[in-house]
Amino acid sequence: MKNQGNRLSILSLPEAREFYSVPKFLTDERDYFFRFTDEELKIAKRFNKAPNRIHFLLMLGYFKVKKVCLVYGWKTIEADYHYIAKRYFPQSNKHNKNIDRETRRRLYNIIFDLKNYNRCDQNVKNALLSDLTERAAIYVDETQLFKDAINLLKSMNVAIPRYSTLQTLLSRAIGHEENRLARLFQKHLPEKTQSEFLRLINKDESHHRLKDLKKLQKSYKPGDVKKELKRHKVLSELYTDAHKLVQKLRLSQGNIRYYATRCTKYNINRLSELKKHKALLYLTCFVTTRYQISNDSLVQAFLVSYKNFSDEIKVCRDDMNQEQILKALENIEKVPFVLDLFIDNKINNDTSFGLVRERAFKLIPEENIPLVRQNLANVKPNKQAIHWEAIDKHYRKAVANLRPLLLVLDMRCRSNTVLSNQIATTRKQLDTYKESSVIDGRLIKKRDKPYFKIDDPLDVKHKKCVSKRSEIYLYSLINQGLLNGEVYIKDSMEYRNFDDYMVSNKIWKERRHHFVELGLEKLNRPADEYLGELETALNERLEQVGQRILEGKNSYVKRKPNSELLMWSRAVKGKNEQTTERFFNKFDRKSVVHILRRVYDETDFLQHLKPKSSRNKKTTASIEHLLACLIANGTFQGTRKFSTMSGQQYKLLQRTEDDCFYEEALRLAIDEITGAAVHLPIFDEFRLDVENIHASADGQRFESKYVNPLVDYCSKYFGMKKGAIVYTLVSSHFAINGRVISPRAHESHHLFDMIYNATSDLKANIISTDTHGTNQFNHAILNTFNYQFTPRYAGFKKRFLDEFNVKFDKEDILSLSKGINFKLIKKEWDNIVKIMLSLGMRSVQQSTLVKKLCSYKKNNSITLALAEYNRLLKCLYYLDYVDDTQLRHVIHASLNQGEALHGLKRALAALGGNQFRGSSPEEMQIWNACADLLANCIVYYNAMIMSSVKEHCHQNGKDDYIRYLKTISPVSWEHISLNGFYDLAENDEFWDVKEEIESIEFVA
Asked: DSSP characters for 849-869?
């Protein structure tokens, strides 16, 4: 791109051209957008010259799509010009003629009057600049600000101005924020503190401190935890000053993350070249964010270490218990010989009892006598005592792993002041004396108190034993508190106090305005009115569904003859469908490179894979290298292995991968393909419903070669190996969003995050999952944000009967087994609304907040109220599922689409050994995004073939085969060569699918 002076280079050259170019219409789209009202045609006919009439309608049609004053050449509008001329002015002269600048301006003024739009004058620019300046203080990313500017102009009914105008406005807004921060830096950051931060990027330092701090904890093994503790120590020395400065700078959480990301992406040389205040800003935000990440990692290390310790104790306890039982059984055989001592004539009555005991102990050792006595008396072993003996045995290992974490983590409690004081006291004692005192008795459970008694204060050995047990007991309380939200870490991302995740008081005061912005108008309604409608709807559905069951009109649930019980049939009956492979095997086998090039020609999706660079410089990479990296990562092979299979230089592929493959760019490429898929003729056959767009979310397990925070051992899924879960949102056979999560995480915690942050044109409004996608809040959360949640529950029959009573001898055939507590919901309605607003405003990562809610104490009134509201909506869904055959079929079909895409991704991953190779969470996310993009390209390619077949059948009157096409899934790869040698050069072979279709006989 040309040098643009002080203006930001927000869009790449292809993106800018696309944004300000004439829309490219398909036949159906041209018919739609060039359909005009009588008033619009009447205005057009007022012009004396026919070209002006045509250009007016042409510009009006374009303006419906893009609210931009377009400047175009004749070649770009020729087809549309002739279309309008032929449709509306068939008698006019159709010679090639463009219009001059003044005429274009005059025509646009008429369009503005007609559509009630205005030009971007100086007053609008001033208002836009003021708004962008405020937004820059919240989130300074230029791409997001550009989108905000476009949305604001649309809301003001103002035509989008030239790109250079927006560049100037954004440059000034961002510049204003940077100047504000520079002044505050000079005022609030002393020279001594500045030098401490700048030491991180000092090239003269023997050890590059920043490079080491950027490293994340790979695993929770003791060695990796020790390394993280060292990094935590360095960060803690800087964090106090960084946190104070961030507060004085009034930086938003979004900007802190943005600047921290900049610091992560830049190396030491790049940071050293920046202006001093900017480098300090990046370093300050990096330290703030990295310290919180370090706290999260250490908390997770604490939880993992305690779980491992607890598992070891259980195994040890069981072994000790079994050992005692075996010892008792061995000695029981010797009991008769001990009894013989009482009738032995050789022992005189004058013999001392001590001599008799000695002979008895030779038969049964003294320490085993209690075990034998318990066994004979049929007394069960004291498992609790054995448990504490096992803890005493493994004490040193627990202390070695858990004590260092307790000393560095600033743990606090929400309401349990006794526990909070105990943590503070224990930390102080361990830090000073290397041992702790006896735990406060109020924290000890009744069953455990006997093992903490000190009968003799002079018994030093027993006193030390109780002290050790107290420390271990405290670790168990902290572990439980971290899991249920009672214990929190102040400077953390995932383990903060729950109230810190809520929106600020300022936002809460303006909530009605924000509800409108977020499309949550229902939350503006009075609670009594809204909940009253839901209560009425529930009662009506109970009556309707019960009556249909009684009358035998429900095919899924029927009354058992002469009984009060229900008979259940299969929820979904299988269909006799033709195999997909038989359809695609009719076509020539093509390589995956050929498929990607064909899809690229159709969608231009590779334009988004542009290098990450400074704001004023953007370059491009070669198509061959982009395709190579996409296939290498999408098949889990990696660029090193792929370079030998494609004849490409590894260093070039590595450079392309580092520069062009990042999550934001890959998501834009995925959205480009899904957006183009919507316009394919076959796409209507993929939709499960005419009015709604369905999607399904499900997890897929993959082993991992390397260890990082997202990778963990899980015997259930990986046996003795380690891996991660790929959670994917699928709509109409296409992957529209995905992320990699840990096997420790619950899929349902990430569901709303996946849906709400999906940027694809496929805006799903009905979401299906299996049981793993459900929890006690997802119905309420998704319903609030206007999504219909339709999970397929395992064991649905039992769940239904748990919620509803069935009594055919009563007027109310169906009734709730437990009434909905509307009083509690209304009481806590404001708190529920605040939670929903916090989710919508993205004040915190949604998955973190949902996880917090799910782990919160069950007796908390807010959690109980939200769970009760969720139950109300879940009961309504149960009734719909039971009564609606079509709904059950659609849910089943939607989940099957997701499973089919998982099969394709598994086939792609098999080329790389079915193993992730990313050494960090970021790399794993990139590899998964590449797999989604590669899978979408294959699905799009198949959809193109099916679209051509559909058009061919339309033209030749083969309507029966069109109905057969509806049963075919585009998720197929039998006709695609996925492996072998990859020739990435331009393919000269011209393959005309329409010509091949002509030679194929299609019989349904």
From this structure: HHHHHHHS-TT-HHHHHHHHH
